[in-house]
User: Fold this.
Amino acid sequence: MMLFFCENAYIKYIFLYFYVNRRIILSIRGEFMKLLVLVLNRTEKFEMLLKTLASNNITGATIISSKGMAHELMANNDLGILGSFRHLLDDSHKESKTMFMVTEENKVPFIIEVVESVVGSLNIPDTGILFTVPVDYTRGFKN
Assistant:
C-alpha cells in the first residue's frame, strides 16, 4: 500500500480512490504485468523446456547465454578467499541459459508449473532460479 501525508482529508480521499480504483480496473482488464526471469543451470533440459513452453502457448521470451560469477572467477583462477568453495561448484556446466519473459501476472503460476515439470524442482541446488519483477509500462507487447 502506498503511504502519503496530506493535510487535506478530501484530497487524500480522492487520491486513495483513484489509486485503488486504477488497480481494480487494471486487475479486471488483466494488465498487471510481470517480468519473469529464469536462470537455468541445467542447460541439458533447455531445449525440452522451450518445446514444452511453446506447446503450452507460452511464447515471446528472450534468451541469452550467461555464466555465474563464481564460475567466471574459477575459470580465471581468481577465486581468492572463495577458493575453498571450489568443490561446491559443478564443473560440468560451464554456462547457464537466462530467459526473460514479460507476461500477465495471472500466468506466472502456470509458467512455474511448466518449468518445474521439465527441469525438476528449482529448490534442488544448482538447478536454477526463477523470479519476477513488476512491469510498470509496456509498449509493443502482444497478448
Remarks:
- Residues 10-16, 24-30 have pLDDT under 50 and may be disordered.
